Amino acid sequence: MKEKLDSAIFAGGCFWCMVAPFDTLPGIESVTAGYTGGHVPNPTYEQVCSHTTGHTEAVKIVFDPDLMSYEDLLGYYWQVTDPTDASGQFQDRGDNYRPVIFYNSPEQKEAAEKSKQELAESGRFDDPIVTKIEPAAPFYEAEDYHQQFYLKHPDRYAAEEAGGRAQFIKEHWGK
Predict the structure, then answer these.
(1) Taking every annotated instance into account, which residue ranges of this chain make up the domain Peptide methionine sulphoxide reductase MsrA (predicted)?
(2) Per the residue annotation, which of 14, 19, 73, 80 is the catalytic one?
(3) pLDDT of 46-57, one tens digit each?
(4) Three-class SS of residue 19?
């Protein structure tokens, strides 16, 4: 394992759909689905879905900054979320699906704010960029059956992606 790894925590809808876009990028050591930002220690999926814990579904990305910069990760993040929707993402609705960049350091906070500002000024979106930038909170790994969902259940993952994310990416980013 590398001596100098860093981590990023991003929320942008169902964590099932947030793992795949980052999982195979160069320099990525791991992408873990989990929960963060709430007030209940070690929440379960059922608790988070009850909307009573304050948690957001998120992914923790461990990466080698010599191969993938945090700024580049932010660029990928903006391309796989709808930064104009504070009430969830695509077919996933509610606070536990809100778009948030959780920063681990002052440098990450500064990079996230700069990236958000650049996106806002780009004119790519007609609506305001509402993605929150918040300090990292304890990250709790989701249950094993949620990890690497896109590989374990490719048909169901494809159906989730068809729920809006894939079309959104195509419309706004041309991919």
Answers:
(1) 8-158
(2) 14
(3) 999 898 999 999
(4) helix
Q: What is the dihedral of CA 10, 76, 164, 168, to 10 degrees?
A: 140
Give yes or no: 14 in active site: yes
CATH for 11? 3.30.1060.10
Q: CA 115, CA 122: separation in Å to the nearest integer?
A: 10
- Residue 96 and residue 53: Cα distance in Å, rounded? 9
Domain that holds residue 57: 6-165
**What's the CA gap between 28 and 16, in Å, rounded?**
17
Q: How far is CA 45 from CA 37, 42, 80, in A?
A: 14, 10, 23
DSSP-assigned letter for residue 144: G
Q: What tens digit of pLDDT does each residue of 92-146 get? A: 777 888 999 999 999 999 999 999 999 999 998 999 999 999 999 999 998 888 8
Helix (H, G, I), strand (E, B), or coil: what is residue 58? strand
Smallest CA-to-CA distance from 10 within 111, 157, 93 is with: 111
Residue 174 belongs to some domain of the structure: no
Q: How would residue 21 be classed by pLDDT, with cut points 50, 70 and 90?
A: confident
Question: For residues 167 and 158, is the Cβ–Cβ distance under 8 A?
Answer: no
Residue 173 binned pLDDT confidence (cut-offs 50, 70, 90): low
43 is a domain residue: yes
